[in-house]
Amino acid sequence: MLSPTPDSDLSASARLPHPHARQTPHRLPVIPYIALRSGEGPVTHELKLELRSTDTWGLAYADETPDDRDTHDVLWRRYHHNRYHTGRPTGAPLPGQQHPDRLRETMSLLHCAVCNHPADRSDAISLPDQGISTAKHTHLRRPPTPEEAALF
């Protein structure tokens, strides 16, 4: 069998790679855990105005449950969930949109918004536009992200 020589008329692009040559692995796109997926959206429920304390009025669901508010008594919007039987979100991600329940979950548990694993403060990094720093505190708009998840 003849092999091509440097002088042959085969261009470099026409040559096939060696079958055992190392190839760069193809990475699948990373979909953050908090991403809103197709089929997920707000649940429509009746809101009412109620007296929250002696002199404060606020919005509440007519059928409100303790899970509708966080530890700061903030009412969160209800959203549908699409999940596999394993509990992982499913469906095509909607670019630039976040699922409020999953964001709330990762923020309250200090889990990574990308992989949903606990974010150890010693190895967590801040991504751009992740929060506002003051002299004493950092107020995060997103949960901390471990370095491994940020490198995807």
Describe what you observe in this structure.
By secondary structure, the chain is mostly beta strands. The chain has a domain at 28-41 and 93-152. Helices cover 9% and strands 19% of the residues. The protein is built from two helices and eight strands, in the order ββββαββββα. The protein has a two-stranded antiparallel sheet. A two-stranded antiparallel ribbon has the order 2-3. A two-stranded antiparallel sheet has the order 5-8. The longest helix has 10 residues, at 100-109. The radius of gyration is 25 Å and the shape is elongated. The two termini are 44 Å apart.
What topology emerges from the helices and strands here?
Layout: E1 35-37, E2 47-51, E3 57-61, E4 93-98, H1 100-109, E5 124-125, E6 131-133, E7 138-140, E8 145-146, H2 147-150
Features:
152 residues, mainly beta, 2 helices, 19% strand
> Major sheet: order of its strands?
1-4
What does the overall shape look like? elongated
Structural class: mainly beta
Radius of gyration: 25 Å
The helix/strand series, from N terminus to C terminus, equals EEEEHEEEEH
Summarize the amount of helix as a percent range. Answer: under 10%
Whole-number average pLDDT?
A: 75
> Largest beta sheet, briefly?
2 strands, antiparallel
End-to-end gap = 44 Å
- Unreliable spans: 123-139
Strand tally is 8
Number of helices: 2
The fraction of residues in strands falls at 15-25%
